[in-house]
Amino acid sequence: TQDCSDLQGAVTKCITDAFQQITIEQQNQLTTDDVVTSQKADPDAQAKQGKGDTLQRATELLVAQCGVEVINEIDTAGIDTDAIFDQVTANAVNPARVKRYVSGPMGDASQCREDQPCSGSEPIRRITGDCNNLQRAKDGASLIPFAKLQPPVYDDGIGSIRVLTTNKASKLPSARIISNKLFQQTDPYPVDTSGYSHLLMQFGQVIAHDLVLTPSSTGTGGAALDCSICDPTMYDKNCAPVTVPTGDPYFKTSCFKFTRALNAQTKVGPRIQINQQTHFLDLSVVYGANLCDHNKLRSFAKGQLKTQSPQGYNMMPTDSADTNCHSGPAYPCTLSGDLRTSLHPGLYAPQMFLLAEHNRIAQAITTARPQWPDERVFQETRRIVIAFYQHFVYTHYLPKILGSTLMTKFGLNPLSTGFFTGYNPSVDPAIMSEFGTNAFRFGHSEARSDFARVDNNNKTVGTPVMLGDNIFYQDPIYNKTAQQYESLGHGLMYTQMMKQDNQFSFDIRNRVFEIRGKPGSGIDLAATNIQRARDFGVGPYNRYRTLAGLKKAVTMDDFADSIPAAKIAMLKTVYTSPDDVDLYPGMVMENPVAGAVVGPTAGHIIGTQFKNLKVGDRFFYENQVPNSRGLNAQEIAAVRAFDFRYIYCAHSPSTTQIPKDIFVYNSPQGPCSNLKPIDLTPFLPPN
Ligand code: HEM
Ligand SMILES: [Ca+2]
Q1: What confidence score (pLDDT) does residue 114 get?
Q2: 98 and 31 in contact (C-beta within 8 Å)?
Q3: Which of 143, 203, 205 to mutate to test the pocket of ligand 1 (most atoms within 8 A of CB)?
Q4: Which of 160, 120, 124 is nearest to 137 (CA)?
Q5: Are 406 and 593 in contact (CB under 8 A)?
Q6: Which of 48, 208, 300, 517 has the fewest CB atoms within 10 Å distance of its CB?
Q7: Which residues, chain by chain, have CB under 5 Å from ion ligand 2?
Q8: Cβ(29)–Cβ(220) under 8 Å?
Q9: What is the 3-state secondary structure (H, E, C) of 185-229?
Q10: How far is residue 268's CA from residue 85's CA, in Å, rounded to a whole number?
Q11: Where can this protein be found (predicted)?
Q12: How many angstroms is it from 644 CA to the middle of ligand 2?
């Protein structure tokens, strides 16, 4: 072994050994063709994994030899472990294999990235999110690591998934056991008492897909790891399948699949996860977060995004190469800015309406300014659509989720006149691990198993689409007798969502990714949320509730300031110490904040995130940042005057009336003819 006093030598030796070990392990990896995943890593993300895995192993070897303090010593000594990795792998015998490992140069030179240097005068945000921050060009860009509210707590201090209790004396219960005890729905299940519609759930998922996509680890050459193997001696180190107890009410196997988030660390130290979406609220869910995806979506004429019209319906383009798709080729899945659009049929209508409105505006601009080239029309349109979407999220979505107290506390209320002056380039907008893995997954509790199909008059036009039968099946979208996606769009407005609490619909808890006719072939999403937080090293609930002003619990009963006694009693059936309660169950058991959907802890994390997304986004629609092109006074007035409901009327031909508030299921209807398109005059300078 190497002498730890020669740090440089010890690091080099450990990286060399780690590289060798990982290379051999890769040859014995078990991969599979039939894994369906919503978290598929794109090629640029994949290119980072070999380096990440190698450096995690090197860190493990080094710590075993020199103690955990070595990580800090390396930093203090200024040793560039990234460079040592590059040296070591450059000397490796097999250049083809190394290519997959050396992510830095290869990843950055990818054709999918926008590499030109930042210039302060760029009129519109980039597709990849680069250069939003002029001091730190990569802030908020796609493929950049998640931020963290609290440092990660991996069991080994390096990167192993959290399986131990906080005092390390025993093992945490399996996430499925926790779900069985705490997350089952009563029958019938409680609906939301504020009268919110299922569309509030659905729109939340669109926002989630705009903000977060955590790529999963892959096997060699991008193959899917087989993480449904239950024997720990057999599965890859990047698998962490969830143990199913014997006698489980639904699953007959002893585990269900779970793939760890891809490790993109670039130096000796802890494991690091990245976001494949742009972190900003910028409709990357519609436009794509890298140039390769983006270019596939555009027609490159008149500013249009591609569409198609089978059976007379205006639809998104399809992706015949989508390996997740169970219903193709007869009913192909959808191509959009996010690979999860075909996850279930409820997502289609809201995403389609945004795309269709882009095309409507681009057409109007082209008609008014026929001399403008495609690129100019496209980007001007994109700028308008992102602006009214941001306005809608902060005006109509967030206040319902957070309530007025938290909206005010975090400074999230939109202005009705003038400009926001709080842009702060020192704020990192990055999505926080705690937000992506848990807090913003509160919406899973709102999702029903049944997605109603009704017409404009709320009359049934087909049998409800069951979630568990339709994960990555798109045939309901093509069903013309049941009015295609229009009836699902209406159904979302005219049914209640489930209450946001610790009850999850049967399909969310048992049938996500299930293959038709094969009960038990899917996963439990609520349990997966717990496992995902452990995967990221997100610590327990007790570490977070204090941030929201609650006291640190010493006994389980101390949770009484936020959790009702009956639910604390439930927590006691799975956890013995308050320090072990996972963040997700803690949050969904909290009483909601007055006027809010979520409780204080989720509310704190979500509020902090949307604050960072506002003050840390140079292109936020309310900004007038010196030397950056924001909306001018007339433009922002047009955005504020625009009623978002217009897009539900305009792009669903059978819709002639619309609820006063599309997020309130029984709110009075009014005619669509009262709603006007956005006034484009301010966006059309004379030339
Ligand atoms: C029918 C409804 C929904 C289904 C079937 C669904 C399914 C999923 C699945 C399979 C994942 C990946 C889990 C993992 O491997 O870690 C996920 C992640 C996530 N979901 Fe949902 N979801 C739904 C609704 C929602 C809603 C309403 C929200 C928010 C309001 C939401 C927010 C999120 C977030 C933030 C993530 C993390 C994304 C990432 O890290 O890549 N989801 N969801
Ligand atoms: Ca985004």
Answers
A1: 84
A2: no
A3: 205
A4: 120
A5: yes
A6: 517
A7: 210, 277-278, 280, 282, 284
A8: yes
A9: CCCCCCECCCCEEHHHHHHHHHHHHHHCCCCECCCHHHCEECCCC
A10: 9
A11: Secreted
A12: 19
Q: Give the number of whichever ligand sits closest to the CA of residue 258.
A: 1
- Chain segment 22-48, per-residue pLDDT in tens: 988 888 888 887 788 889 999 999 999
Q: What is the pTM of this model?
A: 0.97
For ligand 1, whether the C-beta of 214 sits within 6 Å is yes
**Separation CA 561–CA 577 (nearest Å):** 17
If you ran DSSP here, which 8-state letter would residue 397 be given?
A: I
- Could you tell me the two tokens for 567? 């639910």
**Closest C-alpha residue for ligand 1 atom 15:** 528
- Confidence class for position 103, pLDDT limits 50, 70, 90: very low
Could you tell me the distance, in angstroms and rounded to a whole number, from the CA of residue 664 to the centre of ligand 2?
26
Q: Check the annotation: does 344 bind a ligand.
A: no
d(CA 230, CA 432): 30
568 vs 600: CA distance, rounded Å: 16
Ligand 1 atom nearest the C-alpha of 532 is: 16
Contact 466 CB / ligand 1 (< 6 Å): no
Query: Ligand 1 centroid vs 340 CA: distance in angstroms?
Result: 9
Quote the pLDDT of residue 193: 78
Distance CA 17, CA 629 (A): 51
Element housing 665 (H / E): none
Pairing state between β 31-32 and 224-225: antiparallel
Q: Which of 61-75, 104-118, 344-358, 604-618 bottoms out in mean pLDDT, i.e. has the lowest?
A: 104-118
Question: What are the DSSP E strand ranges found in 579-619?
Answer: none
- Residues 426-443, mean pLDDT to the nearest whole number: 98
- The ligand that comes nearest to the alpha carbon of residue 523 is 1
Q: Which residues are catalytic?
A: 209
Closest alpha carbon to 646 in 413, 388, 454, 364: 388
